[in-house]
Amino acid sequence: MPLLPAPDLSPALPEIALVCAAMALLLVGVFRGDGSARLVSWLSVAVLVAVLVLCGLVGIERRVGFYGMFVTDAYAVFMKALVLIGSAVSIILALRFNEEHRIARFEFPVLILLATTGMMVMVSANDLITLYLGLELQSLALYVVASFDRDSVRSTEAGLKYFVLGALASGMLLYGASLIYGFAGTTEFTELAKLFGQPTRPSTGLIIGIVFVAVGLAFKCSAVPFHMWTPDVYEGAPTPVTAFFSVAPKIAAVALFVRFLIEPFGGLVVEWRQVIVFLSVASMVLGSVAAIAQTNIKRLMAYSSIGHVGYALIGLAAASPSGVRGVLIYMAIYLLMNLGTWAVILCMRRQGQMLEGIADLSGLGRTQPGLALALGIFMFALAGIPPTAGFFGKLYIFLAAIDAGLVGLAVIGVVASVIGAFYYLRIVKVMYFDEPLASFDRPLAPELKGVLLVSALLTMLFILWPDPIVGGAELAAASLFAR
Amino acid sequence: MILQAIMFYLFAVVTVASGVMVVAARNPVHSVLFLILAFFNSAGLFVLLGAEFLAMILVVVYVGAVAVLFLFVVMMLDIDFAELRSGFIRYLPIGALIGFVLLAELVLIFGSSAIAPGIAGLPAAPAPANAVAMTNTRALGALLYTRYIFAFQAAGVILLVAMIGAIVLTLRRRVGVRRQSIPDQLARTRAQAVAIVKVPLGAGADIPGD
User: Fold this and answer.
1) How far is CA A388 from CA A375, A452, A454, in A?
2) How confident is the model at residue B121 (pLDDT cuts 50, 70, 90)?
3) Can you tell me whether residue A313 is helix, strand or coil?
4) Is A110 within 8 Å of B164 when comparing Cβ atoms?
5) What are the tens digits of pLDDT across the range A297-306?
6) Using a CB-CB distance cutoff of 8 angstroms, which residues of chain B are in contact with residue A105?
7) Does the residue A121 lie in any domain?
8) How many domains, in total, are found in chain A?
């Protein structure tokens, strides 16, 4: 029989390199024993940086590989860069925590590498099959790292809860994918875009399929009403794992959500816009209101991340190049602010005990002014107060929404961010105006200090030099609408 | 043709009947055995459809692995199935109602929908010219290792993650467990293992190291 030509591997070169490196590091760990966690972690960071460079070398022109299953374009490169940075910094953040909690094992960075591969596949998906496989590769590794502290009941519970609910979401997503395949006859995004790229009247079954897939993706990026797992998993998982969860997988899920709805089903925007608007409004409102009552900072950050997904989805609801550009800028700034905040949370330890209460931050402004200043900057940024980067993230999103005629949605967004500002500013108040407690353990780990310094500086200086992120996002968003 | 019809009804009836028995059997081990019977008969149905590869996979994977796993679990866990089923009659009306609503919705939606136009021109993988002469194992293999090579490899990586995860979460080195260590045993010399003690008359032996 005639053979197909051998596939061109070059579009997926970064993913292939990452998988091979993960397997090589696994071997290194196995042969050197459990003492090699630190070595494997730093090697993993080096690998992630190398893959980031490789992503840049593969280039931003649109190329479809593996018989249409895989695509690389400016959008994919932008999102992959965010995911890779998030993963690399999470591994660095975990170094000291894992050693002090006696869970420093070499499998941790390897699992993060494999999860990162899954996220990159998600971002580059050009077929429902690729979408599902990337999502599962990511999720399976995440379930394991959630319960990585297996002697802790809460960590085990977090992993199990995440697994059961995640499996349910995967089931819904698969059901939706099968409906789409059944009613459209193809799973490939390019072919689907030919069928549904222009406004058409699709069959009801196809709409149901899209909604089911959207539900699965909304679960993965924890948009309300599919957010139930988020606070529990964030609270139970080891803190560096939570830091990882709140950045890289969320960015990848939002990226996939945007690609899935804009590329193949861009013509059906009237059909899916109401779903996204609902998800967005519900996430923003719940994210701001439910966080007010929290006393645990990890739970607070969980609700905060739910709210931020709501803001990002406004840009998707706009379904325009400027809306997608807004989402990309928002996710980039979200990455910065969140990594910094988690670095501060990882510094919260007294006499070797990790602290998670907001009250434990009392008087930090007097005992550790540097740390308090950094956390203050991140809180102002998360609340969206100028001149921090967080303000600009929200600005681009709201402008895009108004351009697309979604004024009501933008107004709800502004109101929700005013409500949300209350709990961010309460942390600033606790740090600067409450009676000081004993200072946190010193010295801070040098790698935590580095992450803090860089992310605080970038958050503050974004206003002076926004071009790399804004220009890159512009290019990436344009590539999604190119056809 | 008539033979095929007879076989179809035979397999179908046995499948449905054993499916009912899976739910109805009092003894959970019997349930699993009926499940295996249902799998075998569905495999027969696949053969009738000309999908012999699916039939074999069903037998190998479901009967060979999954059902045996079920059997292990059922026999190892002491689950009181009679108690699990005790509320059956009480919950039957509400369950039936929900099932009916779901069915009605599905019929309403799928009864009124149509497949997208223009599908016929878009086959996911064009059928090879000599399709009739080709066994479907070969056809699947030819697609799996070429057109779907990316998905195939990605699935392999997922299995690798599952393996790493299982080891990470369950392998633990316990202290205080005496394991057999063959190298240690082989490295033992006569001097370490044997001591010659001269026992004086009328006294007990002084055992060294005791």
Assistant:
1) 13, 15, 14
2) low
3) helix
4) yes
5) 999 999 999 9
6) 168
7) yes
8) 1
In a domain, A307, yes or no: yes
Amino acid at site B150:
F
* Global confidence as pTM: 0.88
List A residues 55-94 in contact with B (Cβ-Cβ < 8 A): 65-67, 69-70
Q: What is the pLDDT of residue B135?
A: 82
CATH of B1-79, one of 1.20.120.1200, 3.50.50.60, 3.40.50.970, 3.40.50.150: 1.20.120.1200
Confidence of residue B204 (pLDDT cuts 50, 70, 90): confident
Q: Which helix (H) or strand (E) holds A63?
A: strand A63-65
The two tokens of residue A340 are 């910094």
Residue B147: other Cβ atoms inside 10 A = 18
| Cβ <8 Å between B157 and A114 | yes
Q: What is the ipTM of this complex?
A: 0.92
Beta partners for A296? A357
Mean per-residue pLDDT over chain B, rounded: 84
pLDDT at res. B81: 66
Helices (H) and strands (E) in chain A, counts: 19, 4
Domain limits for position A386: 10-481
Question: Is A1 within a domain?
Answer: no
> If you average pLDDT over residues A116-138, what whole number do you get?
96
Distance between CA atoms of residues A345 and B4, nearest Å: 69
Tell me the β-bridge partners of A349.
A354
Amino acid letter, residue A462: F
pLDDT > 80? residue A3: no
With CA atoms as reference, report the closest residue to A22 among A119, A124, A107, A145.
A107
Please report whether residue A469 resides in a domain: yes
With 60 as the cut, is the pLDDT of residue B125 above it?
no
DSSP state of A200: -
Closest to A201 in 3D by CA, of B74, B144, B116, B94: B116
Closest-approach residue (CA) in chain A for B110: A205
Alpha-carbon distance values, B135 to B48, B132, B140, B155 (Å): 14, 8, 9, 24
